[in-house]
Amino acid sequence: MSESAREVIALRDVHVARGGLPVLRGVTLDVAAAETVALVGRSGSGKTTTLKLINGLLMPARGSVLVEGRDTREWPPYALRRRIGYVLQEIGLFPHLPVAGNIAVVPRLLGWPEPRIAARVEALLELVGLPASIATRWPGELSGGQRQRVGVARALAADPPILLMDEPFGALDPMTRAELHREFRRIQANVRCTVILVTHDMAEAFALATRIGVIADGTLAAIDAPRALASSTDPRVRPLLEPLFEAGALIGDRGR
Asked: Which residues pair with 164 in a beta bridge?
């Protein structure tokens, strides 16, 4: 990787075990500034574990995880997590706070003055395609797509350089997912943060990522641009591509 594309996130020969069983085995990965990397793989392959390592919620048994050139073991936990926005499939909005209060959680923890917080909330609602009038509504009054947009706004509230997304659109209906995919691409074009997206959906990975990493049996089986990955003959990768071939989303030699 060139100096002009210096990695913001780097995993170096990372090993993680749980209950004496390996979860990740020798994973090495570089993610550059403003890049969107999707991690795909079967359930239990280690995708969410990778996000937790980057966010400092887990530490590797061996190897190292670097964020902005600094080992996560050396980061004060709160300082690290304030550099990282985290979006979950379950969203996790606080039900006792209105939309504006949910978005403002981190800026208030950072001691921002109220006028700055109000302006940030207004700007973020516009960014994620929600009307300003929604700021006073409660999470329980929102649709799934609206809650997901608020979750993205909250993750971006303090303008973090890194955004981690764990199956953020998985619980939504296909039409809402497609709409939010378009919104994500628009937001990323404006914000230009470094994104790692975990998904089970290879079509989603192809739609949103600049590179796709396939995690299989605790290893990084492949990492490449979508077009290059589509021609992979690796038996750990090809089964993930089959649904795209069947849907006609990819054209190639399925029998290779």
From this structure: 86, 196
- pLDDT at residue 250 above 70? no
What CA–CA distance (Å, rounded) separates 73 from 64? 8
Tell me: pLDDT of 129 over 50. yes
Q: What is the distance between the alpha carbons of residues 203 and 252, in angstroms, rounded to a whole number?
A: 15
Question: Which tokens belong to 237?
Answer: 């990768």
Instruction: Give the model's pLDDT for residue 10.
Output: 97
Beta bridge partners of 162: 84, 194
Q: Can you give the pLDDT at residue 254?
A: 44
Mean pLDDT, rounded, of the chain: 90
> How far is 129 from 152, CA to CA, in rounded Å?
11
Residue type, 50: T
CB atoms within 10 A of CB 210: 15
CB 252 within 8 A of CB 246: no
Q: Rounded to an integer, what distance in angstroms lies between the CA atom of residue 37 and that of residue 8?
A: 12
CA distance 157 to 150: 10
What pLDDT is recorded for position 126? 95
3-class state of residue 152 by DSSP: helix
When pLDDT is cut at 50, 70 and 90, the band that residue 68 belongs to is very high
Q: Tokens 């992979």 belong to which residue?
A: 232
**Structure-token match 């960014």, residue found:** 127
- Distance CA(98)–CA(107), nearest Å, equals 15
The two beta strands, 84-88 and 162-166, are: parallel
Beta strand pairing call for 36-40 and 194-198: parallel
